[in-house]
Amino acid sequence: MTYIYNSKQPMTDRDLSWILFNNRVMAEAMDTNLPLLERALSLSFVSSNEDEFFMVRVAALYNSRKLAKGTEKRLIRNLISEIRRNIVDMDNNMDAIAEGIRNELKTKGIHIYSKMPNDESVIKWSKEVFKTRIAPLLTPIAILPTRPFPLAKGKSLHIAVMLDDQPGSWATVKLPDKLPRLLLVPSEDGKTRMMLIDTIIAEHISTIFGRRKIRYITPYRILRDAEAEFTDTETGDFLSSVRGVLKTRKRGDVMRLEVAKNAPQELVALLAESFKIKNKEIYYLSSPLDTASYMRALYKIPGFDELRYPKYEPYMTQAMAENDLFEEISKGDILLFHPYESFDPVVRLLQDAAKDPHVLAVKQTLYRVSGDSPIIAALIEAAKLGKQVTVFIELKARFDEENNIIWGEMMEKAGCQVIYGLPGLKTHSKITLIVRNENDVTKHYLHLGTGNYHDGTAKSYTDLSLLTVNEKLGNDAVQFFHILTGYGQTTGMNSLITAPNTLRDKLMDLIKRETENAKVGIPARIDGKMNALVDGKIIKALYKASQAGVKIKLMVRSACCLMPGIPGLSENIEVRSIVGRHLEHARIYRFANGGEPEMFLSSADWMPRNLDKRVELMFPIKDPDIRQRIDEIMEIQHLDTVKAWELKPNGQYIRVRNLNPTHTLNAQEVFMETHGWTENKFDLSQFYKDDIEKDK
Any idea which residues carry the catalytic annotation? Predict the structure, then answer.
């Protein structure tokens, strides 16, 4: 499946590499060693990932094709065709896995009805549920030549109905979003029986069409272009622009039409004509449509805890739980490794700052937050208590725009100074600055992180947080916020490295230094951990470093365009990817620097959008104990022989396995057992030994 789009510099296509990543997620859903409902949850991630892929990446390719000419247009057309072939395979695999999970659930006492059973009591129950709970929420809309096809909501389920009384007489019905996807069927035998709401509607939908007979029906679902363009000039009303884009997105071009495999072609043709799409945009599924919501509903079935992972409680030291956080941070830098260590200290720091009479100001950047965010609540309380609160909230955080507008307006009403984005850029940095007066001395307390201020995802994403009162970082943070809110300059900043100003150049210089060191025999090495590696300039620099003899070890969770292990080009580069219970989200960059290593954490991946089109931060780790801990964290991940995959020179991934089954290592489990590698450490030498023997 490898698609080389630059013969002078071998690189795997970004979108095809992403498909390989989603297949690795799907491997989790297929792993029979995992709890059954956890496999269902993994499959929901595969489906929701695919949805976003169509709405963003496929949409971008379609838009590029409209503007392209000649060879470029042909290449894009070929890529779209290759993507479709792979997506069809992915959909077929998802169908098979979903049906396999449903069948396995039967053996556990959970019966899922995807079709109406021949059982009078169940039919009677479903008829009553339809009449009392569902029918009042349905709106059948007749499709008439005299009016346009009604606006169909993207990602929602619909049913198309062909009526039998007149040729071409048909209607569409949107399924209600407010009802659960699965309903509990009364049972007297002690077994759990659930029925899909789409099954109930399909069985009884004829009752809402009066005397008109139904010839056939089919469920359908569409995905629309969500790759919207924002008009965010310095003189324009940016908030109004975002609201306008959100309205436009609801009418975006249809990128994908999902229908059942047995859908009548007459109805499929009518839907395709209505949405102005071709056959290549139609995808036929044998499992219930919207696999993501179906599998999430399965995961949320009450009880059956034995079919899920044992509950894990993030660790928090007694000092962080009970002591004054400002005093604790003043003792020295603190590293938190989420989700193994609790995110609560970050939340509590803001809550304490709101009430602390010595705190003068709080400044923070926000990209994504939870629906009921304690972070927002703390900022609002701080403003109400007289603190100077400045919040830089990113309105262009894709699919969170409406949520962020609501939060922004709420904070403004409470007295916060809210800044809505920068012209032409997304603010993706994760930083909080708390200005505190201590005995007439102003101190700057900082939180710097690799992940969002989202207390929900902090329980499932692996990220790193640094809490510090370092003077240089604090002074740079003051200057950084001046840049965001006014006309400050990056010149003179000591420690913080920012995109799009200096981050790309800094990375290139760091890679070049390792390259030059290797050429003169100085030991050189680069270690990196990120979500994605797609930037052509960075990849070219890494290839040159490899050719010079620099040892490069990378952990790239998702898309990776670099092709490792190619003789004469990248034989010194190793790329691995970990896909497991937690989503690997941290960004860590380490450079050997001739025996005086430099280590950085960052909000940025090595992608053009992060380096050129976003406001990002990279910050150094100076504390030797914290640096050693992060070194060991990365080392343990490279020793993983359970959840790790290795990228081969042909662009394919293979699982990393230990030949000695008694010495397997699951890095995420190690971190859960050791509270994020803070204590109870154990000897890793056996894994090195086995790894060497395996490589031979």
Answer: 428
